[in-house]
Design a protein that fits this description.
heterodimer; A: mainly beta; 16-stranded antiparallel β-barrel; 4 helices; globular; B: mainly beta; five-stranded mixed β-sheet; 2 helices; 17 strands
Chain lengths: 409, 228
């Protein structure tokens, strides 16, 4: 009796073996000094394509705290929150938060399931922690738009084929997501066109001051029509040198629905995007990205639609702690009223960006300098602000970032 | 001792001393020198080389005498180090993780399927490899990472050095088979093996030159740092 009882008691106790856990944390802050020749930013009642207004400014670029809790080998929980040094409604707010299950590969196949609020995996540019581009301060026009308006608040499933561990030269994968709370997506690009900066919209953010024109108090992450959206795509990787991604996004919004509490309607937004990254010996990276999309909304009885596309090309060269990037962006957008009639161009432009960064291995400091020149034509500058539609905006932005991180386990 | 006996003693000692190395030479004094080259003539560094004695008769495997038994596959700067590790069947390999981040090492190769989480700074038990074959290693957090462990039951094994050379010494006479393996070589299997015969005390030389260019080496440096 004694032995049997001991064995019966021991069994559940053995099952309660402690699961290995680890908590990784990162805290960082960066200070920005900017000299800009522009109008008022779209963030401040204007149609400037930068974060900053005209003139010289010294501001907090970004303060960020991120936590990643691993539970066992296959589960992790992530919280990523930032503050942008402007007048958001909350001192600090989430950019992403999710749980991810990642199986160990079996026979070369691996499955991942993610649930929460996160960026869909379309970008090959925003590869650093916190969805930051390691190459430049400001993202391309393409990914600046994603950062402003797109988040998957739902679940994503991904299947990876890790054939490189089976002797093949290629890895590939498929992914798909179902989400809600992205019905206002499209309102910002329709209102202010493309922009180039690094300010991501947080989950409870208000973009634009009260009573400003044209962007005033926009809130992005709401469910308006009780209809989920989806995205689906694939990726291909050749060794560690070449990667290709493609994705289709459709928020399946019902344009007849509205939400007066945020003074907005549901915007039906769809886009296709593809990106390619090539790493060459001599520490050089080539990056090409493209997006073609549309957004439709019913505003005061009119069915309005916007068609937009953008592409960019970046080359980055590294020497030890130093890195130099050059990027060319091109973007354009048209508006259509009631689905017929000629489309009228409302935004078009090109941008040149040159960025230098210095970051030593293991050091907590990172310095980045970015020069940008945007040559654009925006009809709303004339129609809403009485300004000339054509503008050449330029800026020099210096960033000094300090970060520290650690792990508990 | 009387002078005659002393001289005789010295002569016998000298003869004995002279005789000993001759006796060793007669047993196992052969060697094999392999020189491995890429298709363009550049040295092929880091290739796994194994040498098997086919006969005649059994021979005491030297590795059982000399094997320190400690094999290490480290993780440094988000890469496996060494890229290729050659171990004898039955060896245990330690995975220390000298990196600044955690890794989750796995293999689904038939020769050894395993999963090993490596939290930074925590020690883990070594993994035992008891089936000959090639094991491809990956990291479940960093998909870029790839490494290999070649488990061999050959008696002599190692990796070519930076000049593409590998050497085995103290070999008895007999028939031998030399095999070469490298993850980035694109060669038909027949070219990766050569047979040679060693007479007593002979040095056999094998030169291998790849017929096709190798696949590009893995990247090092900052591009690996980001995983998105």
């Amino acid at each position: 009796m004694g032995l049997l009882k001991s064995l019966l008691l021991a069994a559940p106790l053995a099952a309660l073996q402690p699961v290995a856990t680890a908590l990784d944390w990162q805290v960082e802050a960066d200070v920005r000094a900017t000299l800009a020749d522009t109008g008022n930013s779209f963030l401040d009642g204007g149609l400037g394509k930068f974060r900053q207004n005209d003139g010289a400014s010294l501001q907090l670029g970004r303060g960020r705290i991120a936590l990643e809790q691993r539970v066992g080998d296959t589960l992790r929980f992530v919280v990523d929150a930032s503050t942008w040094g402007d007048n958001g409604p909350h001192p600090i707010d989430l950019t992403e938060t999710f749980a991810e299950y990642r199986s160990y590969p079996h026979g070369g196949w691996r499955m991942r399931v993610k649930a929460g609020a996160f960026y869909p995996p379309s970008s090959l540019e925003n590869r650093a922690a916190g969805w930051r581009s390691p190459y430049t301060i400001s993202s391309s026009a393409l990914n600046t738009w994603i950062a402003e308006e797109i988040r998957s608040i739902g679940a994503e499933v991904a299947l990876d084929r890790l054939a490189s561990k089976n002797g093949s030269e290629f890895d590939w994968g498929l992914f798909g997501g179902v989400y809600g709370w992205n019905d206002p997506a499209g309102v910002l690009v329709a209102t202010h066109g493309f922009a180039l900066h690094d300010r991501q919209t947080t989950l409870h953010d208000h973009i634009g001051p009260d009573a400003a024109v044209p962007v005033s108090n926009r809130q992005l992450f709401y469910e308006i029509d009780n209809r989920p959206g989806y995205y689906a795509g694939g990726k291909l990787r050749h060794g560690d040198r070449f990667e290709l991604r493609a994705m289709h996004y459709d928020n399946r919004a019902d344009v007849s629905k509205e939400k007066p509490s945020i003074a907005d309607v549901a915007w039906l937004t769809k886009f296709d995007t593809a990106a390619m990254r090539l790493e060459t010996t001599g520490e050089r990276t080539w990056l090409a990205q493209w997006l073609d999309g549309r957004t439709d909304a019913a505003v005061t009885g009119f069915k309005l639609g916007w068609r937009f596309d953008t592409w960019n090309l970046l080359v980055n060269q590294r020497w030890g702690a130093q890195s130099l990037s050059a990027r060319y962006d091109r973007f354009r957008m048209w508006q259509v009223v009631n689905d017929f009639g000629p489309a009228s161009q409302v935004d078009r432009g090109t941008a040149w960006t040159l960025a230098y960064s210095y970051e030593r291995e293991g050091a907590p400091w990172r310095f980045m300098a970015e020069a940008m020149r945007v040559d654009s034509w925006v009809s709303n500058r004339r129609d809403l602000l009485g300004l000339p539609p054509s503008a050449i905006e330029s800026k020099l932005e210096l960033s000094l970032n300090y970060r520290f991180s650690g792990q508990y386990h | 001792m009387r002078l005659c006996a002393q001289i005789a003693c010295r002569i016998v000692t000298c003869l004995t001393l002279l005789g000993a190395p001759l006796a060793i030479a007669a047993g196992a004094s052969g060697s094999v020198e392999a020189r491995l080259l890429q298709s363009d003539g550049a040295p092929l560094e880091g290739a796994a080389v194994t040498l098997r004695r086919l006969g005649p008769g059994p021979v005491e495997a030297p590795r059982r005498q000399n094997d320190a038994g400690v094999y290490v596959m480290d993780q440094v700067n988000r890469a496996f180090q060494p890229e290729v590790l050659v171990v004898p069947t039955g060896a245990s390999v330690k995975f220390p993780n000298s990196d600044s981040v955690s890794h989750q090492v796995y293999s689904f190769s038939p020769a050894k399927r395993f999963q090993l989480p490596l939290y930074r700074g925590k020690p883990y038990s070594p993994v035992n490899f008891d089936t000959p074959g090639i094991v491809t290693l990956g990291c479940n957090i960093h998909d870029n990472m790839i490494g290999w462990i070649l488990i061999t039951d050959a008696d002599w094994f190692g990796r070519s050095d930076k000049d593409g050379n590998w050497r085995a010494a103290s070999l008895p006479a007999g028939d031998y088979e030399l095999s070469i393996w490298h993850p980035r070589l694109r060669e038909p299997a027949a070219r990766l093996q050569s047979k040679l015969h060693l007479d007593s005390g002979e040095t056999g030389r094998v030169e291998f030159r790849a017929s096709k260019a190798m696949r590009p080496a893995p990247l090092t440096g900052k591009s690996l740092e980001w995983d998105y």
